[in-house]
Amino acid sequence: MTKPLQPRAARTRQLIIGSAATAVDLYGPEASLGQMCEAAGISRGALNHHFALRQDVLASIRSAAETELALLGRQLLRHPGPLAEAVDELATALRGKLRSDTAIRAGTQLLLSDRTTARALIRRTQRILRRRAVVESRRGRLRRRTPPRATAALFTCVLVGLEAVDRLDTEWWDDGCAEGMWQLLMAVTVADLDNDLTQGP
Fold first, then answer.
1. Which of 16, 25, 85, 19 is nearest to 50 (CA)?
2. pLDDT tens, position by position, 26-85
3. What whole-number distance in Å separates Cα of residue 105 and Cα of residue 110?
4. How far is it, in rounded angstroms, from Cα 73 to Cα 151?
5. Could you tell me the end-to-end alpha-carbon distance of the chain, in angstroms, rounded to an integer?
6. Phi first, then psi: what are they for 142, rounded to 5°?
7. Residues whose CB falls within 8 Å of the CB of residue 190, separated by 6 or more in sequence, listed in order
């Protein structure tokens, strides 16, 4: 008899998560349960029916963001092009998600506002980029004397910095700025076979 209610309960739960994410987006990681209820248009009792604690709601928002970020990371690993091109596409996709999906934006904000989760996310990003950089180096796609570890660190800083800057000033990351930045990064990381061969090791 309870099965017909399960899809409705799931939809209500997702509505609460989305509305709570809106509250976090508006008021920051310290958004109260009252603000979450107001955003969802529900009572405190209705929210507590699905989430016992405020931290449970925040954990669900963070989880949604982590899932999306993990998917982007897998796409980066599978990208067939040069590392800089792959990171450019990852950054563009991330920018689109952060601007169009409140839950992802709020979840990313929650992840980066906590020192432990922020550190884990940054380290995980760097590990993924390092794996790609090692493959690029073995294939001769990175410039000589450009260590994969340093390349991964550079791109990690760029990705994390772009998210922070875009959150503070959405007009900063316009198409011209992004295009010029990635052209510069391509120039300093991607192997120029003619020059690299003539310069030697």
1. 16
2. 999 999 989 998 888 888 888 888 888 899 999 999 998 999 989 988 988 888 888 888
3. 9
4. 16
5. 73
6. -95, 150
7. 82, 83, 84, 141, 142, 143
- The neighbouring-strand residues paired with 142 are 190
- Reply yes or no on whether the pLDDT at 201 is more than 50: no
Cβ within 8 Å of residue 115, ≥6 positions away: none
**3-state secondary structure string across the chain:** CCCCHHHHHHHHHHHHHHHHHHHHHHHCCCCCHHHHHHHHCCCHHHHHHHCCCHHHHHHHHHHHHHHHHHHHHHHHHHCCCCHHHHHHHHHHHHHHHHHHCHHHHHHHHHHHHCHHHHHHHHHHHHHHHHHHHHHHHHCCCECCCCCHHHHHHHHHHHHHHHHHHHHHCCCCCCHHHHHHHHHHHHHHHECCHHHHHHHCC
- What distance separates the 2 farthest-apart alpha carbons in the chain? 76
